[in-house]
Specification:
The complex is a heterodimer. Chain A is of the alpha/beta class. Helix content of chain A is 33%, strand content 18%. The longest helix of chain A is centred in the first third of the chain and has 17 residues. Chain B is 59% helix and 0% strand. The chains are: A alpha/beta, B mainly alpha. At the A-B interface, helix 2 of A face helix 2 of B. Chain A: Belongs to the thiolase-like superfamily. Beta-ketoacyl-ACP synthases family. Chain A: Pathway: Lipid metabolism; fatty acid biosynthesis. Chain A: It catalyses: (9Z)-hexadecenoyl-[ACP] + malonyl-[ACP] + H(+) = 3-oxo-(11Z)-octadecenoyl-[ACP] + holo-[ACP] + CO2; a fatty acyl-[ACP] + malonyl-[ACP] + H(+) = a 3-oxoacyl-[ACP] + holo-[ACP] + CO2.
């Protein structure tokens, strides 16, 4: 597994900072946000690799960097960590053909499209880089990863806004179940912390603007003072493998994907339906496909974006768990890293697997005064040591798309 | 070496990320310097920009080596 996020570079580095209750949110540094309503975001820290920061040239050769938008850079960083961690470097043609890639993005190369638009607008269309299109295309993370490692199996990509990461991992696991591949590198990558991305979500009144002077307090899921989400950038990638295949080669197995459920709201382009009934149905479908009892689930990594929709998701989870709600821990790790859009679901699925590995529920930062009381423990401020055998992770996207994934220890 | 040759060499080194010593006049962008077809399109654009010349597509297709590029640009500049 591999992660690059506002908490830094690397799986264990991210996890230990998350569990320690640290935040990756700050004032936007990659450009001057003064003209915009929102000034905060989660950006990947730049610095030496040893310090858990990103030095891009350690991962992507300088001459290749300009051929890819930043979301591809970040996807390659996390994919490299994940593939190295998995130890799966197939040499034979047959093994390569049985290894595929499914890495998505919610938005893709937004900054690249912005820059190219200006070139054309200025009457310099003939000066447009021949790398513009392949730099911006969402499926090019999958493409670059396949080229780097020689993975010749299914090469696919998912685009379902903020549900992308969960859909990519879920769909990739289904491809393995259907026999299309033995190994799939799956996840999401996003780099939309740019003027156009921030301005667009500002116009949709989706971003937090009340905490510009206290960035670390801006992402506060379920808190009564929350006023919108905080955008983050990064990537989360996992290597999925058919169980017997992994066992036969003695691979390190972090966990098992046991359930996956999807639904559509058919309601509104950005707002969830009453009681988040679409989320309820996605979770229900995931539980059904896992063949488990709801009470087996000890931890839920919520979509919990720090918007009004948080309480609707809470209602849906309460409805699903019924009398078992009191035994459940549910947190939103977006409180620490912001909302990574198309990468969110992948990073959060990884956090869910690590929660099982270490029997720790990561905290929900800034949950000072819940706007709604609940029997569910939302792990305010500090991580909790508790037994977690099975975890569920939710991701919901604009367009009314919902996805839930259930993971279990092995 | 002429000023044009120097500048061409510098652009090639920068765009293809190759060592300066490999950028000899005879070096082919694709066969010797690791460029692909998109790299060569970008290189020609960089030459156009740097030398304020127009390199039409049919001429660009004939620029395969470092020397081809230098010769073409020198001829344009002399004209």
């Amino acid at each position: 597994m591999g992660i690059v996020s506002p908490l830094g570079l690397g799986l264990e580095h991210n996890w230990s900072r998350l569990i320690a209750g640290e935040s990756g949110i700050g004032r936007i540094a990659s450009f001057d946000p003064s003209d915009l309503a929102a000034h905060v975001a989660g950006e990947v820290p730049v610095g030496p690799t040893e310090a858990g920061c990103l030095t891009l040239s350690d991962w992507v050769p300088v001459k290749d960097q300009k051929k890819m938008d930043r979301f591809i850079h970040l996807g390659l960083v996390a994919a490299t960590e994940a593939v190295e961690d998995s130890g799966w470097k197939p040499e034979s043609e047959e093994d390569r053909c049985r290894t595929g890639v499914m890495i998505g993005s919610g938005i893709g190369g937004l900054q690249t499209i912005y820059d190219a638009s200006i070139t054309v607008h200025e009457g310099r269309a003939r000066r447009l880089s021949p790398f513009f299109i392949p730099s911006a295309l969402i499926n090019l993370v999958s493409g670059h990863v396949s080229i780097k490692y020689g993975f010749k199996g299914p090469n696919h990509s998912v685009v379902t806004a903020c549900a992308t990461g969960v859909h990519a991992i879920g769909d990739a696991s289904r491809l393995i179940m259907l026999g299309d591949a033995d190994v799939m590198v799956a996840g999401g990558a996003e780099a939309a912390v740019c003027p156009l991305g921030i301005a667009g979500f500002c116009s949709a009144r989706a971003l937090s603007t009340a905490f510009n002077d206290a960035p670390e307090k801006a992402s506060r899921p379920w808190d009564r003072d929350r006023d919108g989400f905080v955008m983050g950038e990064g990537a989360g990638i996992v290597v999925l493998e058919e169980y017997e295949h992994a066992k036969a080669r003695g691979a390190r197995i972090y966990g098992e994907i046991v359930g996956y459920g999807m639904s559509g709201d058919a309601y509104h382009i950005t707002a969830p339906a009453e009681g988040h009934e679409g989320a309820y149905r996605a979770m229900q479908a995931a539980v059904r496909s896992a063949g488990i009892a709801v009470s087996d689930i000890g931890y839920v990594n919520a979509h919990g974006t720090s918007t009004m929709a948080d309480d609707l998701e809470l209602q849906a989870v309460e409805r699903l768990f019924g009398d078992d709600a009191g035994k459940l821990a549910m947190s939103s790790t977006k409180s620490a890293i912001g909302h990574l859009l198309g990468a969110a679901g992948a990073v959060e699925a990884i956090f869910s697997i690590l929660a099982i590995r270490d029997n720790v529920a990561p905290p929900t930062l800034n949950l000072d005064n819940p706007s709604t009381e609940s029997a569910i423990d939302r792990v305010a401020h500090e991580a909790q040591r508790r037994r977690i055998d099975v975890a569920l992770s939710n991701s919901f996207g604009f367009g009314g798309t919902n996805a839930s994934i259930i993971v279990r220890g092995v | 070496m002429s000023e044009i040759a120097d500048k061409v060499k510098k652009i090639v080194v920068e765009h293809l990320g190759v060592e300066e010593s490999k950028v000899t006049p005879e070096a082919s962008f694709i066969d010797d310097l690791g460029a692909d077809s998109l790299d060569t399109v970008e290189l020609v654009m960089a030459f156009e920009e740097a030398f304020s010349v127009e390199i039409p597509e049919d001429a660009a297709e004939k620029i395969a080596t470092v020397k081809d590029a230098i010769d073409y640009i020198e001829k344009q500049k002399a004209a």
